[in-house]
Each structure stands twice: as structure tokens, then as C-alpha cells.
Specification:
- By secondary structure, the chain is an all-alpha fold.
- The protein has a domain at about 20-55.
- The chain has helices at about 15-35, 35-55.
- Helix 1 runs antiparallel to helix 2 (about 35-55).
Amino acid sequence: MTFFNLRVPFFLPVWRRVLTVAAIGGWTIVELVTASPGWAVLFGAAGLFAAYEFFIIFDPEKYKD
């Protein structure tokens, strides 16, 4: 198991993947509005990584136990 392993069965339903990416993106905007660019970059990168994992290279077989 790795620290950034998002390939777990919990994320098989599409609504959970969309909600996760939206929540991270929303928090990125909060950090930008509150003038915290360092945190915004960190959360923005995490959101982009999650979007890449969940929508670009998504393979349901890799999310099984």
C-alpha cells in the first residue's frame, strides 16, 4: 500500500469520484480566496492527481480487492 493509493474499491461508484475531485477543487478555491497560495497549489495538485486517476486512466479492474 502506498501513501497516495486511490485505487481502492471505495472509489468504484462514479459519484464518489466526482464528489472527491469537486471537494478538493472547492478547497483549492477557498485557499485562493483566503490568500494562501501555497496551500492552494498543494490542494490543486492533489485535485489534478485525483482527476487523472479517476477519469483519465481509470480501469475498474484495478479497483477490485
